[in-house]
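Standup notes, structure subgroup. Blocker cleared on the zinc ion input:
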Amino acid sequence: MQIGFSSSSESKNCVICGKKTSHYKRYEQSNMVITIPAHAGDCYDQVDVKRLATRALTDIKQNIKG
Ligand SMILES: [Zn+2]
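Run returned:
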């Protein structure tokens, strides 16, 4: 898995502190990419991708019908 940092023109709420950010922590595994909004520095270091990904997958499963 590749882990990196990316920025976007789109601002979202940081998952750690809740303030707007245009920086994202980026995880890439084969052809799937997960980007999580987080400020550089402390917020970036505190991102818990395992917890966030588990929650995201649960939401996705609930939204898939049939
Ligand atoms: Zn933050």
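Discussed briefly. The radius of gyration is 13 Å.
Next: hand off to the docking folks.
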